[in-house]
Amino acid sequence: MRWRLAFLGALLIPELALDPFRGGLTATLRHPFGTDDLGRDALLRLALAAAHSLGFASGCALLALSLGLLLAWQGQRFLGLWSALRSLPPLLFLLPMAAAMGGLPALPLGLLLGGLIAPHLEPALRVRINHFRHSPAWAVERTLGAPWPSTLRRWAPWGWQQTAAIFPSAWLAALWGEATLSTLGLGPGPGHDSLGRLLAEELPRIGSDPSPLGWAALGTVLLLAWSSVPRATA
Amino acid sequence: MGLGVWAIGLALALGLPGATWKQARPPLFPWEMLGPTLLAVAALSLLAPTLAWMVGPNLAQRRSLALLEAPPDLLWAGLLLALWPAAWGPPGVMGWLLAFLAAALPGEARWLAQAMPGERPFPLAWGKAAVSRVRCLVLARLWGRWIVARLPVWLTATLVLERILGMPGLGTDWMTRVVVRDRAGLSLWVLALALLWVLSQSWEGEAA
Question: Could you state, in order of their start, the residue ranges of all structural domains in chain B?
Answer without folding.
Answer: 30-207
